[in-house]
Design a protein that fits this description.
This is propanoyl-CoA C-acyltransferase. With 441 residues, the chain is α/β, with parallel strands linked by helices. The chain has helices at 49-63, 83-86, 92-99, 125-139, 158-165, 171-174, 181-195, 201-215, 230-236, 273-278, 312-325, 342-352, 360-366, 382-385, 393-405; strands spanning 15-22, 75-79, 116-119, 144-151, 264-271, 289-298, 334-337, 420-427, 432-440. The protein has a nine-stranded mixed beta sheet with strand order 3-2-4-5-1-6-9-8-7, with helices on both faces.
Length: 441
């Protein structure tokens, strides 16, 4: 006779991060990436989507002390944008279940038959995965959840990949802008920004130089070994080309203004108070970080912003998250924001509220967002230098704040352990945004 193993859970309010894992982010320019110039070319291959997902799931379980106890996980959520195109693989919820015993035979899988799903919101897919998992804990449908983000993008040429990624835009209307649709969309923003004197190309070069300086201290970063000075980011390096084909916008974007096309994964285990009891932790355990709030906002894919100097959707998500947590922007000690392009990082300062409208340039000019600054932003290099495996980014952002709060960042560790942090993860050209406020325990 069949007997259900389902337990009846109670609605909860507090959600905690127990821990997680970030894989190295790799791709062109990374010493770990196997291309034709690599000594292992022809002998070894880069990791597949399935292999990165399996590594992420397994290491997340190990790092949180749940190896051998995985059956306590009630819910699994995967953030991924384009697995079906870059890797010919969709249906990644069940893939995450199988990841626990990937490559093994005759081994019982304790995640079997647990609810698992994939969520997609372009570059905000990772943030949505964490939000979906957190909401399950708050609703009482789960006590412990695993959220994973993963992406492989190096399986296609730059132009084919650019076409795939353009599906995060209004494809029918915006694909024709350029072979590289998203760089062109942000160059279009930059043209408007420069014309309205919101900030300058020198300011975006400062953002890039900061990102590379941080990434050089981060062994997981895609651009860990690639150094870029401010002068090189400002166009004095011959390799720092303006590559767009659209002559109207070409002058407004350099290679160093762009995030990396990376492969990688990140995972996090979340628990409510009942979940903590199941794994022998109390809410004041020093290994934990509390998610004080998590909020999402979306806007119409078919409309352009009335003011390209403002990330309206990201601002809405950030304001919601801050309000829910009863936190002011000035209370924050660290932030991870979505710097898909240098332009975006500056606009994210204003969306998050750490700079007033028109004054993001002051923060980057004064060094306020450097590792040693008043409010360090993207301490591990951000999307520009750490890398941007699209589905993993939102999870990685949250884990980066967690790691700073637990003193785990080594060479790029902030001098003072942060008490409050925020993340702001964006999908498309500011069409989906997920923001969190995190508090150290």
């Amino acid at each position: 006779m069949f007997r259900s193993s389902v337990t009846h859970l109670q609605r909860a309010s507090c959600v905690f991060i127990v821990g997680g894992h970030i894989t190295p982010f790799v791709g062109k320019g990374s010493k770990l990436f196997i291309d034709k110039k690599h000594p292992d070319f022809g002998k070894k291959q880069n990791m597949t989507l399935e292999e990165i997902l399996a590594t992420t799931v397994q290491r997340t379980m190990e790092n949180t002390g749940l190896k051998g106890k995985e059956d306590v996980v009630d819910h699994v959520v995967v953030g991924n944008f384009l697995g079906a195109l870059f890797s010919n693989q969709g249906h990644l919820g069940p893939a995450a279940i199988g990841s626990l015993t990937y490559g093994q035979t005759g081994v019982k899988n304790p995640l079997m038959y647990k609810p698992a799903l994939r969520v997609e919101g372009a570059c905000a897919s990772g943030g949505l995965a964490v939000m979906t998992a957190a909401n399950a804990l708050k609703a009482g449908s789960a006590d412990i959840a695993l959220a994973v983000g993963v992406e492989v993008q190096t399986t296609a040429s730059a132009r084919v990949g650019g076409d795939y990624l353009a599906r995060a835009a209004d494809y029918r209307r915006q694909r024709k802008l350029d072979d590289f649709t998203f760089p062109c969309l942000f160059a279009k923003r930059m043209k408007y920004i420069v014309e309205h004197k919101h900030f300058t190309m020198e300011d975006t070069a400062r953002v890039a130089a900061k990102a590379y300086a941080n990434g050089n201290k981060n062994p997981l970063a895609h651009m860990h070994t690639r150094k870029m000075t401010f002068e090189e980011c400002n166009g004095e390096d011959p390799s720092n080309v303006k590559f767009l084909g659209n002559e109207t916008y070409k002058e407004y974007l350099r290679m160093s203004d762009c995030s990396q096309v990376s492969d990688g994964g990140a995972g996090v285990v979340l628990a409510n108070e009942e979940g903590l009891k199941k794994i022998g932790l109390s809410p004041n355990d020093s290994r934990l970080v509390e998610i004080k709030s998590i909020a999402c906002a979306s806007s119409s894919l078919y409309e352009d912003p009335e003011d390209a100097c403002c990330m309206f959707t990201s601002r809405q998500a950030a304001q919601k998250a801050l309000s829910m947590a009863n936190v002011k922007p000035s209370d924050l000690n660290v932030a991870e924001v979505h710097d898909c392009f240098t332009i975006a990082e500056l606009l994210m300062y204003e969306a998050l509220g750490i700079a007033e409208y028109g004054h993001a340039k002051d923060l980057i000019r004064n060094g306020d967002t450097t590792l040693e600054g008043r409010i360090p932003v993207n301490t591990g290099g951000g999307l520009l230098a750490f890398g941007h495996p699209v589905g993993a980014t939102g999870v990685k952002q949250i884990m980066e704040v967690y790691r700073q709060m637990k003193g785990q960042c080594e060479a790029y560790q902030m001098k003072k352990i942060p008490a409050l942090g925020a993340t702001l993860n964006m999908g498309g050209d500011d069409k989906t945004a997920v923001s969190t406020v995190l508090q150290n325990i």
